[in-house]
Amino acid sequence: MEYKNVTGHIYDIQGYAVHDGPGIRTTVYTKGCPLRCLWCHSPESQRYEFELGYLPVKCIGADICQNACIDACPENAISRDEPVEATDKSGLIQKAKIDRSRCTNCLKCAEVCVTKALYPSGWETTVDEVFDRVIKDRGFFNDGGGITISGGEAMAQFEFTYNLAKRLKDSGIHICLDTSGLAATELYAKILPYVDLFLYDIKHMDTKMHERLTGVGNEKILNNARFLAEHDAALQIRVPIIPKLNDKETNLLQTAEFCVSLGKAVKLVQLLPYHKTGSAKYERLGWRYRLTNLEPPEDDFMQKALEMFQGYGLNCQLH
Length: 319
Known about the structure:
10 helices, Alpha-Beta Plaits, 22% strand, 9-stranded mixed sheet
């Protein structure tokens, strides 16, 4: 099958993924997303450009590495922090301290950081390079497993995602596309023949509330779901449950009704309870996490939500 070996930006490739579609999968995570969900657990995925990440726990001290990162920064954005005890208790060290107001994400400091305490939030790659990496996992793709192209929003890098899907499809691999649904309908029509299952997010049924929570309305998202259902796509609907934001009974009932309206295209509905595991990533990028006081939903609530969706005859499970 003819494809183009185009270049794209990704931030991770994870093998043995069991939550990104059926079976055991390898997931390719692309960068760039048009949504800004308040609960996003992968902030490094939001921007297409590479940003500077910092893990202080890996820093051995600017004094020990002879100010390599400090000297490499053309904006004087890195300095020595206050002295702290070294992890091995060998004495006091001064770790790197970043002035984010000065940092331009040139990443020159990351190039010289020997411990990778300073690191870029992804890398540039090609369709062929990704294919050569993920095809090595083919022996694990039993029981319906395969490759999932995720994000960010994979459709935001359409040419890369489209050509990667074509390249993988030609090898007979089961392909999932994880998407928020926010892209031009004609792009979904174009990629549809090369995707076996769409992992499709429904975050809120009210467009004004959807905009408050994600930065965009939901009209195009719902319309694209209808389009895919009408054109024989297979959909696995994913519904994040965020306490106080989208967990009201009215919204959940409307979501279940919408899933029913898509008919046989919906193979599974997954309810995804909010979690805090991604909050630490914000600090690494110098961002502020806005849901610090929010707690995950109670198990009893998730069970009732599950029964509500199942009451509509939907094949539904907790993620």
